[in-house]
Amino acid sequence: VGGYKVNIYKNTKEATLLANNYNKAECIEIPATINWGDETYTITSIGDNCYNGCGSITQIVLPSTVQSIGEGCFSDCSSLSSIILNSLVPPTCSGDIGLPSNATIGVPSDLVDTYKNDSYWGTFNIIDKKDAIPDIVIVNGLKYELDKNNLTATLLSNNYNRNGEFVVPETLAYADYTYTITALEDDCFRGCSSIE
Fold first, then answer.
1. pLDDT in tens, 42-81
2. 20 to 30 Å CA-CA from 67: which of 77, 159, 160, 196?
3. Strand partners, 14
């Protein structure tokens, strides 16, 4: 569903995100809901080994709806340096979820102490989620440099040699912030001969 493999629970209208080759060299933002047929399902859990071996992912943003994370979920994610958790209550974890001990966990500023005092999450470096967002992100194949203070972004070059029309978005929604695209990097589309 929308590029995600899920197990849906029709009675509760909830879903568990399952393992499915998510290995993209970019920042991944998991949606809070997915649509299947005429129904909307809330993603409340991330299954065992969901991102295991996805060595190209640099950051994952989990929605506030996530209540639990399965064992080995982030094992062998060698490029993963941080995750952002938006849940008001720290998600429960089924054993070791595989995060490296030096991983940074970004959470809403008013929840930093809650996560630091949690028996599992408190073992990691907990910071305000705004500070956990990297300065350069790749989202949906587009590379941006973010100005987190002014909530603006510059589209950077990233081999955009695609066929057909290329529309630069006006905004980028990432980790509950909306950035206005205000500039293009010099030579952003150099060598992109297939774009009309």
1. 999 999 999 998 888 888 999 999 999 999 999 988 888 8
2. 77
3. 9, 42
Residue partners of 128: CB distance under 8 A and separation at least 6? 106, 107, 108, 109, 112
Tell me the per-residue pLDDT of 66-125, one tens digit each, with 9 for 90 and over.
999 999 999 988 888 889 999 999 999 988 999 887 889 999 999 999 999 999 999 999
* Residue listed under structure tokens 């009675």: 11
- Please give the Cα distance from 136 to 27 (Å, whole number): 10
Cross-strand partners of 39: 36
DSSP, residue by residue, 10-70: TTTTEEEEE------SSEEE--SEEEETTEEEEEEEE-TTTTTT-TT--EEEE-TT--EE-
Q: pTM for the complete prediction? A: 0.84
Task: Record the tokens describing residue 166, joined without a space.
Answer: 């290329």
Burial of residue 193 (CB within 10 Å: 0-12, 13-18, 19+) is exposed
